[in-house]
Amino acid sequence: MLKNTFYFFVFISTFLWNNISAQDSSYTAYNSYLIGKVKSWDCPYFKTFDEGGRSFYLHTKAYKALMEMKVAAKKDGIDLTLKSAGRSFYYQKQIWEKKFDRCIANETDSLECVKQILKYSAMPGTSRHHWGTEIDLNNLNFEYFESGYGKKVKIWLDNNANTFGFCQVYDNQSYSHRLGYNYEPWHYSYTPVSKQLLLDFNKRIDYTHITGFSGDKYAQELEIIKKFVNGIGFICHP
Ligand SMILES: [Zn+2]
């Protein structure tokens, strides 16, 4: 009985969320999801799981695709390990403000600090990690992917990630001429979900939503939505 009640609750909440997403922008729950202002355990899109003793969450569809990709990689002798997956606005704010506080201790120009942090880290509210469709794999230093085992991992991902629906979001800017974050060989996106989310983000989110953290006043001036949220590799574009 209890189990049935639980499934009924999951069904109803999933139904509501899916319908909210298709509705008018006055339904703010979907907007909150787009900017990461949801709790992972409250959002029916997300699945929480453990890997290597750590807890992660992902969009259920991205999770399934990742598990399939990991099995295939393993057969080829490649271990894909998660460094990061879904992240909320609140978690991103911690990352951002830790970097901001460290910078501002030695730098009087807060705009300069914001520009420094933006090389690799997103302003809270604008990270694709909020959507649960993004994964950071194996290592967060690009040197790792340039030789030895890391290079093998990169070659495997270049050849196979796309088959599982994943694209490399922040590719080498010298090839793609995109704006925004520096090259991140570790960051992949599950495009069957994230392409639609980017379209929705562009339609529904504006600078009035991107507030509530140190340096937020520069979001518009730095054209964060145009240059960073949309500064992605060609194959990840909707
Ligand atoms: Zn990432």
Layout of secondary structure:
Elements: H1 2-22, H2 28-34, E1 46-51, E2 54-59, H3 60-75, E3 82-84, H4 89-104, H5 110-117, E4 134-137, H6 148-160, E5 166-168, H7 173-176, E6 187-190, H8 191-204, H9 224-229
Antiparallel strand pairs: 1-2, 3-4, 4-6, 5-6
Helix pairs in contact: 4-5
This protein binds zinc ion (ZN).
Written description of the protein model:
The chain is an alpha+beta fold and 238 residues long. The protein has a single domain, classed as Muramoyl-pentapeptide Carboxypeptidase, domain 2, CATH 3.30.1380.10. It has nine helices and six strands, in the order ααββαβααβαβαβαα. A four-stranded antiparallel beta sheet has the order 3-4-6-5. A two-stranded antiparallel ribbon has the order 1-2. Strand 1 and strand 2 form a beta hairpin. The longest helix is centred in the first third of the chain and has 21 residues. The protein is globular and about 50 Å long. It binds zinc ion. The site of zinc ion has 5 residues, from strand 4.
Nutshell version of this structure?
By secondary structure, the chain is of the alpha+beta class.
